[in-house]
Fold this sequence. Notes:
The complex is a heterodimer of chains A (14) and B (257). Helices cover 0% and strands 36% of the residues of chain A. Chain A has 14 residues and is mainly beta. Chain A is rod-shaped and about 30 Å long. Chain B contains 4 helices and 20 strands. Chain B has 257 residues and is mainly beta. In chain B, a hairpin with a 6-residue loop joins β8 (98-104) and β9. Chain B has helices at residues 10-19, 72-79, 141-152, 209-215, and strands at residues 2-6, 25-30, 34-40, 46-53, 59-62, 66-71, 87-92, 98-104, 111-117, 126-127, 135-140, 157-163, 166-173, 176-182, 196-199, 203-208, 224-229, 235-241, 245-251, 254-256. Chain B has a 9-stranded antiparallel beta sheet with strand order 6-2-3-4-19-18-17-11-15. A 5-stranded antiparallel beta sheet of chain B has the order 5-1-7-8-9, with helices on one face. Chain B is globular. The longest helix of chain B has 12 residues, at 141-152. Chain A binds chain B through residues 1-14, and chain B through 40, 43-47, 124-129, 157, 206, 208, 233-234, 250-252, 254-257.
Amino acid sequence: xxxxxxxxxxxxxx
Amino acid sequence: xxxxxxxxxxxxxxxxxxxxxxxxxxxxxxxxxxxxxxxxxxxxxxxxxxxxxxxxxxxxxxxxxxxxxxxxxxxxxxxxxxxxxxxxxxxxxxxxxxxxxxxxxxxxxxxxxxxxxxxxxxxxxxxxxxxxxxxxxxxxxxxxxxxxxxxxxxxxxxxxxxxxxxxxxxxxxxxxxxxxxxxxxxxxxxxxxxxxxxxxxxxxxxxxxxxxxxxxxxxxxxxxxxxxxxxxxxxxxxxxxxxxxxxxxxxxxxxxx
Lengths: 14, 257
């Protein structure tokens, strides 16, 4: 089972 | 005051067509460095980053940093009215709620002016850290587009695996499965036909094909595409824009639970 995470999980908010 | 003139106006059309499938509204930022954009798709799974450097324009005037919210479909409607060989000048004023496009035919016998309404957009900017990727694949952009289209008719996700053998694109669906392997190939007539695989470590990641197919709308911008992969990091699919900059698409991988 694969789950799609939002890209914000990988990058920080600036 | 903002004034950008681009002799190769068709480039602006291609840029807008490259990203409007993914993003509806975006905030364009203009500074001394250039004309840029960063925007996420509505599901916040993919991100697009565009840079058109100021040096790439035939005339570039930007008195102070300015952000302009634009609807990309409306922008495409306006740009569609420009001829393919037209020179495009883009103008904006501080505090104005519109921008204008001027199209000049190469022989200067037709000059058109279009005014477009701006939009209020809450733009969230993400900081993208520098990463050292486990594998970097460079291949003809048309080949990558063909692979994504072909696999998209069979499955919903693509597994991209890089080994010393080359890069493998795999999918699986109700009707069956498919594997496409591209080996490194630099023995070609033209450099843009080459496929190169730079691998530090083998890597295998799963992505939604819907987004990959959307990224390939940028194919007319560049003969080559660069795909950078690292475990559990978003893939970067980059189309370089000659002498001007790039369009980069970032897509979060699907992670096994």
